Amino acid sequence: MSKRSIIHMLNPMKQNSPFDINMALDAGYDIIMPYNNVELKEVAGLTQDAIFSRGPAGVKKTGMFIGGRDIGLAMDMLDAAKSAMVPPFEIPVFADPSGAFTTAAALVACVERELKKQFKQDYKGVKAVVFGGTGPVGLATAVIAALQGAETTIVDHFSLDTALQFSDEARKRYG
Q1: What digits encode the pLDDT tens for the residues 34-93?
Q2: Cα(172)–Cα(32) distance, integer angstroms
Q3: In angstroms, rounded to a whole number, what is the distance separating the alpha carbons of residues 12 and 95?
Q4: Cβ neighbourhood burial of 26 (10 Å; 0-12, 13-18, 19+)
Q5: What pLDDT sits at residue 28?
Q6: What are the residue ranges of helices labelled H in the chain?
Q7: What's the whole-model pTM score?
C-alpha cells in the first residue's frame, strides 16, 4: 500500500491558522496534523517522531510547516527541525508565520518589477520605508528588501523604541 502524504503543522500559539490548514489541504496533503502550543524545545522530538516513524519511503511524502506570528521564533523552530534530521530521514520544512514570508516575498517582487519597469533599476541603492515594520509581514518585507540591497527603514506607529529594537534584532539575525 502506498504511503499517504502528511504535513505536520507546528504552531507556538494556541491555535493553528485555518488559512494555513486550508492551504495545506489545497496543496494536496492527505493528512494534516496540527500541533498547538509547541515550544522550541519540543521541535526536535516532534521532527524525529515524524521522520523515523515513516521510513525512507515515507519521508518522501511527509512535510512540516511552522506557523505562529513571531518570525524570530519561527526561524529558530525551523533551525531546530532541520538540525534534528538525519539523512536519509529528511523532510521538507517550511516556516511562514502569519503568512509573513510569502506575503513579503510577493510584495518585494512586485516592487522590484516596478522598479525595473519604471526606473530600470533594482533594489541596490534604493531607500525603502516599510510602514508596519514591526509586524510579521512588515519586518519580513524590510529584511528581504535589505537583503536585496535597499537601505531599509522600518516604521512603527506606536513607538520609535519598538522600531529600533526590531531593527537591531533583524540586523543581528539576518545581517
Answers
A1: 999 999 999 999 999 999 999 888 999 999 999 999 999 999 999 999 999 999 999 999
A2: 35
A3: 12
A4: exposed
A5: 96
A6: 18-26, 43-52, 55-59, 71-83, 100-119, 136-147, 160-174
A7: 0.89
Asked if residue 88 has a cis previous peptide bond (ω within 30° of 0), the answer is yes
Sequential DSSP letters for 51-94 = HHTTHHHHHTTEEEEE-SS-HHHHHHHHHHHHHT-BTTB---EE
Q: How far apart are CA 20 and CA 63, in angstroms?
A: 14
Q: Which amino acid, 119?
A: F
Distance of alpha carbon 81 from alpha carbon 143, whole angstroms: 22
Which residue is it, cell 504511503?
Answer: 3
Q: What pLDDT shows up at residue 110? A: 97
3-class SS at 24? helix
Q: What is the pLDDT of residues 150-164, one digit of tens each?
A: 999 999 888 899 989
Q: Is 38 helix (H, G, I), strand (E, B) or coil?
A: coil
C-alpha span between 110 and 168 (Å, rounded): 26
Q: Could you tell me which of 114, 121, 119, 173 has the C-alpha nearest to residue 147?
A: 173
Strands 127-131 and 93-95: unpaired
